[in-house]
Each structure stands twice: as structure tokens, then as C-alpha cells.
Prior knowledge:
Largest sheet: 7 strands, antiparallel
Radius of gyration: 23 Å
Bound molecules: FE2/S2 (inorganic) cluster, fe (ii) ion
CATH architecture of the largest domain: Alpha-Beta Complex
Strand order of the largest sheet: 1-10-9-4-3-2-5
Amino acid sequence: MLHPGSVHPDSPLLNRCPPTLPREAYRDPAWYAAEVEHVWKKSWVYVGRRAEFPAGTIRPIELAGQRLILVHDDAGQIRAFHNTCRHRGAELCASESALRGGRITCPYHQWTYDAQGRLISTAFGTPTSEFRKEEHGLFPVHLQDWRGFLFVCLSDTPPDFTQAPIPELSKLANWPLERLVSAHRREWDMACNWKIFWENFNECLHCPGVHPNLSKRVPAFARGINAPNEAVDWTPDTPPVPSLNDGACTWTVNGKSCGPEFPDLTEAERAEGAGFLTFYPTCYITAHVDFLRVGTLKPLGRERTLLTIDWLVAPETLAASDFDLANLVDFVAEVVDEDAMACEMNQRGLVSDRYRAGTLMPQEFDIAYFHAWLRARLPEGLEMSK
Ligand code: FES
Ligand SMILES: [Fe+2]
């Protein structure tokens, strides 16, 4: 039993056991609709990397039920617009294609826009004199390029990208994010609500039971905690222990780096084993000494979520003749398989008529933070609607 006040004042552990979200949060259409409107349409959402989006290209994407296009012009500028023509609303772009002559042409009646979304031509339609082309440009969408990671926000008044809930953007300052290339991508189509993923991501109480191999690699995980300062008996004087076991320096199958380690990392960053940066609700980046993982979430419904993991490495790592893709991918892929199974198991159990809400343990402080972040965005009374 943990008595409030018995942990060190700098401990991140909760001093209480708060309730979880109610089960409706994971199944109810009203909750899901509210989240689409108030969370996914109002947050910065990760849509891909500049390095994987060549200049002179238009790419259709879908976000929160809205169809958008990303446009990368020949001058290197990337913009986002709603994928709808101002003439009669046709879809402008159905699949990734070239930006011919720097123009976007609607396939229906050939209205043409420049890369800034300005209407250039109404083609065979001959407007009367009161028609003003400047009033018929494409609908723009806010776009942010953060170190080559592209985010869009559907809101007319997006939150400041550099503010909470996106913490510590400088945390990855020593990783060469902009120049990394994709070594591998894999998708997990999970039968769970998107919040189940983040809750599982935010605690390590499940690690000893769910991740046997990962827990052998990471000593803290074997104790059900993310880091030594989460131990109930932790004090600032607790001697540090290696972050990874058996001389491993990274999360590959053999524990060895998949290529040269990133040269600008500090000794502390190398010793840490992995650095995490979370962008609610859309993605996280895990930084290792030799590669980066980007996990992207896309809700496909109330009880279905697509998780995409990208493994990013330096170009010279990928080009090396001895590069071993299986060694890079398989360790993490096993962990994600295990997490996906855990998430689906959690979702199935929530169907019970007897389950109303659960209880967080003090070690689940990051889940409590996630719930507070979510509740701050949802309309009042949603939890009372049942
Ligand atoms: S709907 Fe696009 S040109 Fe007519
Ligand atoms: Fe996990």
C-alpha cells in the first residue's frame, strides 16, 4: 500500500487513485463525434514528412472525415487545402499526382488554381462581369513544418504549435530529424478506440506481463515502471543504473546500433536508451542512438484505430551494404504486436454491462495527464450524457 506523502516530493507518482474515463468514452457515438469535432479537428495532426513528399506533387489525405490536399510546389513551399473545387465542389485530386506547370486543375470542368490556391482559370465557363476570381480560391488549411514533420490543423484558429500539449520540442535537438529517411513502414489495424492506444502507451505496469523480451532489455520495464524515478522508494540519491541490459545501446534485435550512432547526441542522451516525444492526439517519436520511430494514430471509427510505425534512419545507414532490416525492425515490431493485442483485449473487456469506469494506479500519472488534456477539450456534460 502506498501512503500519500510516503514518496519523495519530486516523484511523479499520483497521490491518489483517480477514476478512469467512463466506458462510454470508448464506445458511445456521441463521445466519438465530440472527439472528432473538438479534438481531431482542432489539434495539429501529423500528415507525413517533407523528405517523403517530392516537390511538384499533390497528395490527397483524409483527416477527421475531411478530404484535403497537400501541395508541394516547385519552389519547395508546402501548403494544404480542402480537396474541393470552388466551382461545384468536385474532388480535385483522387491520388498522388504531379503538379503540372505548377497548377492544380479540377478534373471535372478544368477550373485551374495556382499552388497558392488562387483561381487562375474557369476554363470553358465564361463568367459574367460581377464574378471575381479572387473570391473563388481554394479553402486553405493551416500547415506547420516542424523539422521536416508536417502537421495540419483544420481549425481556423489553430493552437500555437510550440505550446502545450506538445512538450519539449527541443528534446530532440541533437537528432538529425530533417535528413532521416524511411527504412520501413508497417501498419496495425487495431480493434480498439484510439484512446486505448494512448493509455497503454502511457504506462508500463503492463510491461512485465505483456512484453517479456522488452522487459529483459530495459531493466525499469521489468519493474513495471518507465524510468527509475517512478519506483515508490526512489529519491534523487538513488544510484543510477544502466538504461539497457547486457551492453545493448538501442532497440534492435541484437541490441547493437543498425548503423553509425547519431554524432551530436550527448553522453546523457546516449545513456538514456530512448527519448520519447508525444504529440497528442496524433503521433509520437521515439528517438534511439541510431534510429527514430514515428508512431501515427488514425481513428477509423469508435472501436477501430490504424497505427502506422515508421522506422527512420540516416541515409548512409540505409545505403550500407551490411544494413540488416530485420535486425532493425523485428524487436520493435514484436513489442507493437504485443501492445496491439493488449489494446484489443482492453476494448473487448469494456463491453461488459457491469463495467462503468476503472481506477488508475499512482504509476499511471501520464494517463491522468492524458485524460485531463482530453477533458479540457471536450464539451461539458459529455460524461453526464448517459
Ligand atoms: S467542379 Fe471543378 S471545375 Fe467544375
Ligand atoms: Fe507496451
